[in-house]
């Protein structure tokens, strides 16, 4: 399949493919497989994270498993845009799939939470290109108005992965062994055949001509960004154990601040080779788009990491049952994504969908912040449906906003920047929200446990052999609790477990309230700052 005879002039004056709908959907078939690979991995891992962390004896350190992936994906994303300009989209996309596959094999062999986090970092190096390059290619071959329609397909892929991921993850996590290998390890090993299928499809369908662009890769900028981000994210994860004002934390604050300052200076001197070109930030729509991606990413990833813990820790669901319980989010996201994509393609207007989406996301966080141990499931489902609808209306419109006024010559860097800021927001949200959760949960559980022990009936309940055995090593003599492994909750009598569950829920409410505040900021910016643009059909 060749497209050399179908060209269109972009805003920059550079030629780009002018494709029919059929040709675009053929290219999309390859892109969605690559994106499905990354999206499925995220949802599979999140649904089984508690089981994995319990098996590796690291429940409170589980944030590293997600954060490590997000850090490396975030740092790699801007480089993929420039590498694909130099070497071609297909070559670099295949390299991203290969890196992701190697990381998956290593994850399947991990023996500790921190080792798993290191291997997830390798996965992230590949995963950073799966989303970014797919969206760049779509921007290459569509007009601004068309993008909403085709990016809606990508969101539908995430919806499908959100359905399949929890079910697959739960099925593997619920099995002690499969073919002599621990069930949860297959969550990573299953990526290998999927990656092979994605690579074969990409080779066959991704064949439009490549015009080589000479770029100088900004390795100093990437190094400075790593020096800036990694220490700050380390504090976000370890601050509860070290103390937020401890000497180690203060040292990392300083290193991170210096790294970010150096990054800004390096980017100014790098000119066209900069990871985040300064000229893009002079475009108002781009500034608003990437800024809102960062803010929404905090709320989105924070909620998507915390909600499965509510379903599994508090409601006692298995990973698979928790995955099924999350279907309201999936169906709402899928329906709204496809509807909004078609509406944008038809009318060229997107602000109304962005405002409605951020409003629904804020409402979802507010609903989650009212949850109790015994809340009816319809209340949880309502929050899930609002979150799914909010994300469905928000994510594709934010990408459209960021790309709407960018010259075609800068589309690769702009799209990489969009994914960079969203990933950064997700990294901050995951690390900070889980840090808040586990830094406050132990104290809240200890307080409720101390109150419950004033009741003679509860003391007799704890003294029963089954409960006493389950709590051995969990409740310390001084009154503190060890939350490294939550498996003891399954062995406790429900009445004996109530103070632990109430403590967890109290901390989760704090997390969801913080998420509501973040989402509200996004809503206010969308309502009052985003221009009501009509997208071009050129």
Properties at a glance:
mainly alpha, disordered N terminus
Structure description:
The chain is 75% helix and 2% strand. It contains 19 helices and 4 strands. A two-stranded antiparallel ribbon has the order 1-2. Strands 3-4 form a two-stranded antiparallel sheet. The longest helix has 42 residues, at 411-452. The two termini are 24 Å apart. Residues 1-17 have low confidence and may be disordered.
Concise account of the structure shown:
With 538 residues, the chain is mainly α. Helices cover 75% and strands 2% of the residues.
- Alpha carbon gyration radius: 23 Å
The percentage of residues in β strands lies in under 5%
Q: How do the helices and strands follow one another from N- to C-terminus?
A: EEHHHHHEEHHHHHHHHHHHHHH
Helix content: over 70%
User: Kindly, what is the distance between the CA atoms of the first and last residues, rounded to a whole number of angstroms?
Assistant: 24 Å
Mean pLDDT comes to 79
Helix tally equals: 19
């Amino acid at each position: 399949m060749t497209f050399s005879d179908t060209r269109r002039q972009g805003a920059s004056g550079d030629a780009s493919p002018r494709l029919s709908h059929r040709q675009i959907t053929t290219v999309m078939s390859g892109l969605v497989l690559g994106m499905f690979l990354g999206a499925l991995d995220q949802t599979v891992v999140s649904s089984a994270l508690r089981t994995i962390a319990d098996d590796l004896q690291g429940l409170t350190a589980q944030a590293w498993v997600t954060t490590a992936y997000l850090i490396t994906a975030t740092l790699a994303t801007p480089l993929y845009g420039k590498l694909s300009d130099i070497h071609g989209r297909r070559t670099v996309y295949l390299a991203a799939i290969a890196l992701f596959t190697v990381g998956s094999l290593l994850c399947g062999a991990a023996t500790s939470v921190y080792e798993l986090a290191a291997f997830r970092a390798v996965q992230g190096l590949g995963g950073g290109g799966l989303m970014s390059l797919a969206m760049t290619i779509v921007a290459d071959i569509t007009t601004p108005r068309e993008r909403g329609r085709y990016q809606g397909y990508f969101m539908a892929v995430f919806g499908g992965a959100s359905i399949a991921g929890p079910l697959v993850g739960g099925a593997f996590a619920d099995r002690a062994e499969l073919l002599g290998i621990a069930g949860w390890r297959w969550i990573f090993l299953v990526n290998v055949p999927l990656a092979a299928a994605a690579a074969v499809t990409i080779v066959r369908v991704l064949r439009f001509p490549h015009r080589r662009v000479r770029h100088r890769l900004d390795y100093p900028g990437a190094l400075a960004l790593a020096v800036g981000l990694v220490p700050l994210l380390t504090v976000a994860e370890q601050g509860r154990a070290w103390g937020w004002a401890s000497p180690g934390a203060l040292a990392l604050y300083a290193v991170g601040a210096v790294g970010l300052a150096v990054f800004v200076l390096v980017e100014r001197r790098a000119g066209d080779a900069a990871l985040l070109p300064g000229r893009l930030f002079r475009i108002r729509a781009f500034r608003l788009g990437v800024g809102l991606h960062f803010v929404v990413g905090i709320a989105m990833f924070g909620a998507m990491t915390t909600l499965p813990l509510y379903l599994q820790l508090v409601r006692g669901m298995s990973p698979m049952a928790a995955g099924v319980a999350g279907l309201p989010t999936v169906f709402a996201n899928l329906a709204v994504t496809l509807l909004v994509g078609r509406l944008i393609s038809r009318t060229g207007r997107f602000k109304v969908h962005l405002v409605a989406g951020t409003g629904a996301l804020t409402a979802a966080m507010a609903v989650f912040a009212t949850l109790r141990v015994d809340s009816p499931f319809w209340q949880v489902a309502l929050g899930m449906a609002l979150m799914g609808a909010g994300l469905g209306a928000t994510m594709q419109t934010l990408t459209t906003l960021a790309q709407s006024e960018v010259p075609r010559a800068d589309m690769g860097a702009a799209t990489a920047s969009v994914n960079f800021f969203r990933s950064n927001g997700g990294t901050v949200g995951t690390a900070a929200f889980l840090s808040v959760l586990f830094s406050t949960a132990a104290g809240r559980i200890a307080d409720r446990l101390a109150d419950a022990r004033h009741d003679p009936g509860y003391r007799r309940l704890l003294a029963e052999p089954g409960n006493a055995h389950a709590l051995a090593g969990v409740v310390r003599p001084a009154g503190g609790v060890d939350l490294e492994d939550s498996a003891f909750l399954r062995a406790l009598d429900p009445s004996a477990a109530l103070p632990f569950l109430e403590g967890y829920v109290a901390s989760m409410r704090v997390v969801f309230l913080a998420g509501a505040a973040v989402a509200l900021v996004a809503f206010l910016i969308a309502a009052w700052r985003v221009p009501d643009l009509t997208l071009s059909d050129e």
